[in-house]
Amino acid sequence: MTLQYTDHELTMHGHKLTDIAREYGTPLFVYDETMIRKQCHRFQQALKASGLNYTISYASKAFSSVQLFNLMAEEHMGLDVVSEGELYTALQSNVAPDRIHFHGNNKTDSEILYAIESGVEYFVIDSLDEIARIDRLATRQVKAVLRINPGVEAHTHEFIQTGQEDSKFGLSIKKGLALEGVRRIEAADHIDFMGVHFHIGSQIFESTGTVETVKLVIQWLNENNIHIQVLNIGGGFSIKYTDDDVSYPIEEGIKTITDAIKSACQTHDYPVPELSLEPGRSIVGEAGITLYEVGTIKEIKDTNYYVSIDGGMSDHIRTALYDAKYEVRLVNREEPHDKMMTIAGKLCESGDIIRRDIELPASIQRGDLLAVLSTGAYHYSMSSNYNQMLKPAVVFVTEEQVRPVIKRQTLAQLIQNDII
Ligand code: LLP
Questions:
Q1: pLDDT at position 161, please?
Q2: pLDDT digits (tens, 9 = 90+) for 242-268
Q3: Ligand 1 pocket member 280 (CB < 6 A)
Q4: Which atom of ligand 1 sits closest to the CA of residue 382?
Q5: How is the chain split into domains, by residue range?
Q6: 237 lines ligand 1 (CB under 6 A)
Q7: Do the beta carbons of residue 201 and residue 161 sit within 8 Å?
Q8: Which of this chain's residues are annotated to bind substrate (predicted)?
Q9: DSSP letter (8 states) at residue 201
């Protein structure tokens, strides 16, 4: 990240964040566009080095915007979408429909029809009933991969684990449902079986779980004589929120995973499939920060020191939801971090906290600007209008320019669907 103090003020690619905040207002999401592109390149280079055929789809749930999707098109990335809304947004961008994969554990009939009409590359089928529904609704051949549940527990927050046995996602290998799914897709009139998909969880910082899963899946495919073109291993690669975290070592990790695929295929004399990845957080997470303006400061003697900012859980839900932790920087001055405080949001809920117990400069006062780091993934996309808060604006920054990609919501938009 090209975030640094220049002349005692925080800058991104040399642009002063105070100037950006003055122009676009706060709260504001600011992305390092160069870093997003670099993350795409890192995955591509690592996969290229493996010699495997591959595709990469950015998991659009991490942050959906037309401009971001246009950037993905420029970087030769496909997209993974999970709803009519994500597909609609994707179709407004330059990403070719045949680079879009349609996910979801409860696709509606209208979503299925919309995806077929739009010409998405394939469906990621998530249940047995979906097979019959797609087959019935399709008037021409469509492609699908089957999401299987390998029963492997990723070591991450339980709410973002997805591959454990009782997950709502996929069809269990161990319970025989995955095999049943493959056979039903193979027997379907209008569905071409392309392969299998798994995603064992999110914010996973090492490759052991994926390697274990890859071995188990290839053995299972071979034992059951299932032929696939595509092995989609989902996303889930970690990012650094604080010093307690590690960013997934992309080059090393992808090498470990692709070596495991090659060796498992060799062991079973099984043809090496094309590999597909769906990274979301690792593409945009560390590239994004949120800028807030400091308002009320409240000292509760011997108990807490609350610094409240002009946003909160409406644009930053992950602390309340997952007890996530973030680094915070004072933007407009560079000073030693010498006072313990809690950064709180302005919404009507005690759990509306951005960061509890963090050391920041004691001089922080009303009107100062704070930057919360690593908020590029699952912040804007999980934002809400709770307390009728407005969704913030989003800007992309490179060395050359600062460009708006999403405008701040307006008060009129808040009630545009109200019947008045
Ligand atoms: N593919 C599939 C099938 C997924 O379910 C997910 C995330 C991804 C790819 C992308 O995972 P990533 O690379 O971004 O970790 N709201 C939570 C994260 C939920 C992720 C759900 N699925 C959070 O804020 O941490």
A1: 55
A2: 999 999 999 999 999 999 999 999 999
A3: yes
A4: 16
A5: 3-31+287-414, 51-284
A6: yes
A7: yes
A8: 281, 318, 322, 349, 378
A9: B
